[in-house]
Automatic annotation (TrEMBL), chain A:
Subcellular location: Periplasm
Any one Pfam family match given in the protein's UniProt record, by short name: SBP_bac_1
InterPro entries assigned: Bact_solute-bd_prot1 (IPR050490), SBP (IPR006059)
Protein known as: Carbohydrate ABC transporter substrate-binding protein
Record keywords, A-Z: Signal
Record-stated family: Belongs to the bacterial solute-binding protein 1 family.
Signal peptide (UniProt feature, chain positions): 1-24
Organism: Histidinibacterium aquaticum
PANTHER family: ARABINOSE-BINDING PROTEIN-RELATED (PTHR43649), BLR3389 PROTEIN (PTHR43649:SF14)
Automatic annotation (TrEMBL), chain B:
Compartments (UniProt record): Cell membrane
Protein name per Swiss-Prot or TrEMBL: Sugar ABC transporter permease
Organism name: Histidinibacterium aquaticum
Keywords: Cell membrane, Membrane, Transmembrane, Transmembrane helix, Transport
Keyword check for Iron: no
Biological processes per GO annotation: transmembrane transport
Protein family (similarity comment): Belongs to the binding-protein-dependent transport system permease family.
Length: 424, 309
């Protein structure tokens, strides 16, 4: 049964590719969309959920003959369910993530090639910054709807009390850290129970030590983990670990459980994505206490690159109503919608459309500045989105172990290298 | 009797006549059919399919590629698999502590005092609440900064211990959490067993001068054999299917030191980063073999008991 379904999907994919120009023309003649548009979404947290429901309602209103049905699935559960519904019961539109996280579904032919959308000038010009993240094998497989910056969120009041400045280079970061430790605090809060937070640190130290291209080659499996350059990255990381920069027992906490250390002032900073700002504010940190700086340079010759994980919409290749689905993707990335959904009272993140305007919020404005002019080196997705899933899980476990037992480095690198040889 | 009222029983020779003649053999089969069907579809076929998948390389989406015993060869050199296997053994051995633990609480509670029912239900309480809640409670208890354990240790002048963050201690910490409800379960089994102990035999033993340990060992325990057997079965099975506690308390960490086979299988095949159905299936097959060992032993001893009287 699965076989027939897949063949059927292939037939649909081919025939729709052939029929597409005609359909597009028809659409241009003013005929409206009809039928049902089913959307499966992982935007299950309260704010994203409201945004998703609002988007669907507005799209529904714009197309009176079209029925929009949204199913919102818990964000974590979605990551495993997507495998089932893409092949068994595909919706017309589905959420996912950019870069290598799309790879398994692209390779299995479960995502529709939407390069035709990217050829439209409206999208081509305004979404150029994220085109690379949506491209695999020279084709585009979806559209982005939001992204966010990573950086160091710190306690402005504590820095002022100790007379510290935002660091511009590695030496200042370390001397700041020493001053914080001398005052009885930790420099950085982190919770590595779910591993990926450690990958954020690895990525940044690696990007600053060797640059964006090295990051991409490493995650693409082109560089052995036992390479001396990888060791350099770990050696830089170790300087912080040996200083006692991180909170103790971080392996027992999730990133949320580590927030109190920062809120109570036991740790002065947190390397995180912008989504950490909302819970920090809710916990009582005011704008006077909370600020943001770009992760400082380590090797001054390396161009600054940033992490900007991008969340996306895709059309499953087995979708029934692809015409409506394409129209929905156009709607999602339009400047007006981008401004609206990413505003401070919506997702509170950055719009992907360069013609959209950024929400009225200190962190969003700084983040937009950072990603549009502060990252000439390039925008990485994140370790677990740039590397294949399996490599990511083995490597992130190694990062956590390194943070607790830095002496195990040789053993860890040996293990990662074995995994690399098997996986790629 | 009723056949006489049926007009055309002879119109269709082989049919109803054959059914009627084989009624005694057909009826049990018919009653068994739904159960057998579901057992086949939901248990036997998946087991067989797991065996089959374990010989393939498959990401759960694309085409399968036959690789023979490659997955098993990889398992034999996989340090994470070794850790999981050793942890499974630790679970099996230490979980058995629930049996004596349950027995002694049951002996202690097996008396007639006012309000004993309340005490009994309080002791049984941990088994009633969900494993997820047990896991959360113990995670807070072990919390290295705010947890009750460390606050207590500090009060008597001992250094803080991060039980779940230390790869040497974490598994024992989780097993201790698992023992809490498991002891309660064994206790209930023994309490029911104690109800069936023959008071005349106890009386006779007492007249012969048996006391304390000798009384327990030679008179009470032999009569509790059925309860012990069931307690043994549920404890072994409970130890082998330990999953929820690990998932809640450490998520397999720190750096994979608390994984057991079932958790490792889930991680490899079904979790966020798991796309290796074949490898996961191979782990499941190994776990199945271990379980088969115990299940075989249980079935054999049950069969022997039924034959004995």
């Amino acid at each position: 049964m699965q076989m027939t379904k897949r063949t059927a999907a292939a037939v649909v994919a081919i025939s729709s590719a052939v029929a597409m120009p005609a359909a597009a023309q028809e659409n241009g003649n003013g005929s409206d969309l009809s039928g049902t548009l089913t959307i499966f979404s992982d935007m299950s947290n309260p704010a994203p959920r409201a945004v998703m429901e609002d988007m669907a309602a507005r799209f529904d209103e714009m197309h009176p003959n079209l029925d929009v049905e949204v199913t919102i699935i818990d964000r974590e559960a979605y990551k495993t369910q997507i495998r089932n519904f893409l092949s068994a019961d595909p919706p017309d539109v589905a959420n996912w993530y950019a870069a290598n996280r799309m790879r398994p579904y692209v390779d299995a032919g479960l995502f529709e090639d939407v390069s035709d959308l990217w050829d439209e000038p409206e999208i081509q010009e305004n979404l150029a910054s994220t085109e690379g993240a949506l491209t695999l094998d020279g084709k585009q497989w979806g559209v982005p709807y939001t992204y966010y910056q990573w950086g160091v969120y710190y306690r402005e009041d504590i820095y002022e009390e100790l007379g510290l400045e935002e660091p511009q280079d590695w030496e200042t970061l370390k001397s700041n850290c020493q001053a914080l430790i001398d005052s009885g605090r930790k420099c950085f809060a982190i919770g590595t129970k779910f591993l990926w937070t450690a990958a954020g640190w690895f990525d940044y130290i690696n990007l600053r030590t060797h640059g964006y291209d090295f990051h991409m080659q490493l995650t693409a499996g082109e560089i052995p983990w036992t390479d001396d350059r990888v060791r350099e990255t770990f050696a830089n990381w170790r300087e912080l670990i040996n200083m006692g920069a991180y909170i103790d027992n971080h392996q027992s906490y999730s990133w949320q459980e580590a927030l109190p250390f920062m809120v109570n002032g036991d740790a002065a900073a947190y390397l995180m994505g912008n989504f950490a700002v909302a819970p920090m504010r809710e916990a009582g940190l005011t704008d006077d206490q909370l600020d943001f700086y770009q992760f400082p340079a380590i090797n001054p010759d390396v161009e600054m690159a940033e992490e900007a994980p991008t969340d996306t919409f895709h059309i499953p290749s087995g979708a029934d109503n692809k015409e409506a689905a394409r129209e929905f993707l156009r709607f999602v990335v339009s400047a007006e919608n981008q401004t609206r959904i990413n505003a401070a009272d919506g997702l509170g993140q950055l719009p992907v459309n360069s013609a959209a305007s950024v929400g009225d919020d200190e962190m969003l404005q700084e983040g937009f500045e950072l990603l549009s002019s502060g990252a000439p080196g390039g925008l990485a997705q994140f370790f677990d989105r740039d590397a294949p899933a399996e490599m990511a899980s083995v490597a992130m476990e190694g990062f956590q172990e390194f943070m607790v037992f830095p002496d195990n480095l040789d053993d860890i690198l040996q293990r990662l290298e074995q995994a690399r040889q098997r996986i790629y | 009797m009723t056949t006489a009222t049926l007009p055309d029983t002879h119109a269709d020779e082989g049919g109803p006549g054959w059914v009627r003649r084989n009624r005694m053999r057909l009826a049990p089969l018919m009653f068994l059919a739904p159960g057998v069907l579901f057992f086949l579809v939901y248990v036997i076929f998946p087991v067989l399919e797991s065996f089959q998948i374990s010989f393939y390389r498959w990401d759960g989406l694309g085409a399968r590629e036959f690789i023979g015993l490659e997955n098993y060869r990889e398992l034999s050199t996989d340090p994470a698999f070794e850790v999981s296997l050793v942890n499974n053994l630790k679970w099996l051995l230490l979980y058995l502590l629930a049996i004596p633990g349950g027995l002694f609480i049951a002996l202690f509670l097996n008396q007639t005092v006012t309000g004993i029912r309340i005490y009994k239900s309080l002791f049984f309480f941990p088994f009633v609440i969900s494993q997820v809640v047990v896991g959360l409670v113990f995670t807070w208890f072990y919390d290295p900064t705010f947890g009750l354990l460390n606050v207590t240790l500090e009060a008597i002048g001992l250094g803080p211990v991060n039980v779940l963050g230390d790869p040497r201690l974490a598994t024992y910490g989780i097993i201790a959490a698992g023992l809490w409800p498991q002891i309660a379960y064994c206790m209930i089994l023994y309490l029911t067993g104690l109800n069936a102990v023959d008071p005349e035999q106890v009386e006779a033993a007492r007249l012969d001068g048996a006391k304390r340990w000798r009384m327990l060992w030679f008179v009470i325990l032999p009569q509790l054999r059925p309860a012990t057997f069931i307690a043994f079965v549920v404890t072994i099975i409970g130890a082998l299917r330990s999953f929820d506690l690990i998932s809640i308390m450490t998520n397999g960490g720190p750096f994979g030191s608390t994984r057991v086979l079932s958790f490792y299988m889930f991680e490899k095949a079904l979790s966020e980063y798991g796309f290796r159905m074949g490898y996961g299936a191979a782990i499941a097959v190994v776990l199945f073999m271990i379980m088969l060992l115990f299940i075989g032993y249980f079935l054999w001893s049950m069969w022997r008991q039924e034959r004995m009287p």
